[in-house]
Amino acid sequence: MTRQYSCVVGVGTEAANSHRRALASIPNHFRIVETGPADVVLWGHRADADLASARAVVLDDLLAAPAAASSARLVIPALRFLPLLSANGLFELAAGRKFTSLELNSTVPVETTNGLALSLLEQLAILRILSGSRASVAMLNSFGTGYLSIAKLGHPDTAVSLSAVLGGHDEGDLSVQAVSPTERIEAHIGAGATARPASIVHFDSKGSSQTIPLRQNSLRLTWLSAHEVLSDGGATVPYDLSMLLDDLATVRGALV
Amino acid sequence: MIATSRARKKLVLCEKPLAVSRTEAADIKRVAEETRTPIIIGTMHVYDPAYRAAQLVWHELADEARLVRSSIYLPSNDVFIDQATDQTTAQAAPQSVKPDPSDPAFQRDMIRAAMLGLAIHNIPLVREFYPSPGILHSARFLPPFGYSLSMSNGAQAARFSALMPGQWQPRWTLQVTGRTSSLRIVFPPSYVLSGSCRAVLASKDSAHVFEQAKSGYEIVWEHIADIVRERAVPSVSLETAVGDLGFALDLAGGAAGKIGEVP
User: Are A22 and A96 found together in one domain?
Assistant: First the structure.
């Protein structure tokens, strides 16, 4: 039988609404409580929850990581794209492969608060898991409505380009192009709280193959991951607080 | 080009690029205008009927292009030449010295060649959204033949990437992100007559798909026939073509200058 944990997610904010939508689809895993102590607390953009008594914090306001980390035992970053890309097999597919070029591009809705900083943070997180090494920013040009960046990985043979722009017609998206002369991986994922699936296609000399798409939202996957960590002492999250703090320092250095 | 123009031909179809320097391009333009010789550059995608239709609707939306991304990932040219025609088997000339791909001089030559031979295909289309190169922030040659470039001009930016030959199916795209709209165009590879591009112009509440039976190649040749019969004038002016070449030469020079720089 699935063990149920209590959680506080707040009300009225966009973050609270998005997480409530995700939690509504896993009622056996989490029970939302409006006040009082809870097993898990969502740290959102209006964080006023009691962190001290919580066993874990799901961190939605990623740029506030140091504040949340100071009083929580376990912090699980709620990234918008990485969990679904991971669950849909992107990182497994890319593991151990050497690419000539890696290109990540994000489209961010104009009205998103700190949208470009969050975009760069998520791109660095994806690069870290994709390549297995920490990414640094060698060049970043802000052009008013976006940025162009060159990142460096542990191995210099891969050209890594990151870009993001405020605009577009939708709730935003992220695309990944990983290219070598022998194979190519294309990934595309929409933002937003819907369960629209990511598209991940692998191309080589035999044609192309695509994993069966998962119709799950990244936030739902984040909460399932939190449940797993709480239930299984040995379980870990693929992108943890130390990685987040490291990438956050890179973002702050690059976007000064 | 100059001799052909002076020979009073009805039209000159020029394989891209128009020239390899601004001086050459200016001389060609001057003589073509003196002799009233129409010149068509074989940049087939700019004639693609679905692209033209999508570009027109984008223009009517009056959105501003913020980020333009051109990606050209292609297998060997032979793959599509063999699907489009019947080649005679030619013996490849023996290569006396194998170049070192890590040599900066080799990379500079290759990235110049890539700008004038590969990027030039998309440049006339890119310029309809992003008119001049502005500041080139980064450029890198990608072996065996490709590039990765980033540039910005005021509130606009562009990314160019390419790699060939690859052992996978082609991906030739142009993507434009505006303030409230997005345009994504997927082109067919060169040589084959497999119809137009597929362009999707998406705004907040709707998406329009543009796709037609004819390719840019077919439209170019129909256009040539109309010009020769004096039913039309070139839809792409020589001034625009010279501007396209100037954009490519700026990138070629700028990209070659970036080789060896540590970003």
Answer: no
Do A95 and A179 share a domain, yes or no? Answer: yes
When CB atoms are compared, the residue of A101, A163, A208 closest to B142 is A101
Domains identified in chain A, total number: 2
Q: Residue A40 belongs to what domain range?
A: 5-78+219-240
DSSP B97-164: S---TT-HHHHHHHHHHHHHHTGGGTHHHHTTTS-S--EEEEEEE-SSEEEEEEEEETTEEEEEEEEE
How far B103 CA lies from chain A's nearest CA (Å)?
Answer: 14
Contacts of the segment A193-196: beta carbons below 8 A, 24+ positions apart:
A193/A17, A193/A18, A193/A21, A193/A22, A193/A217, A193/A219, A195/A220
The ipTM assigned to this model is 0.92
Give the pLDDT confidence score for residue A144 in this predicted structure. Answer: 86
A8 phi and psi angles, rounded to 5 deg: -115, 125
Q: Which amino acid is at B97?
A: V
| A31 lies in the same domain as A67 | yes
Q: Quick check: is A249 in a domain?
A: no
| Residue A137 domain flag | yes
User: Could you tell me if A27 and A71 lie in one domain?
Assistant: yes
A109/A119 same-domain check: yes
Per-residue tokens: B63: 């959105």
**Tally of domains within chain B:** 1
Rounded CA-CA distance A200/A189 in Å is 9
| Under-70 pLDDT residues of chain A | 45-49, 68, 70-72, 193
A64 with A87, same domain: the answer is no
- B88 Cα to chain A: minimum distance (Å): 25
Q: Do A171 and A233 sit in the same domain of this protein?
A: no
Nearest by CB: B138 against A101, A139, A203? A139
**Residue contact B161–A103, C-beta within 8 A:** yes
CA B243 to the chain's CA centroid: 13
Query: Residue ranges of chain B with pLDDT lower than 70?
Result: 90-92, 95, 262-263
pLDDT value of residue B65: 97
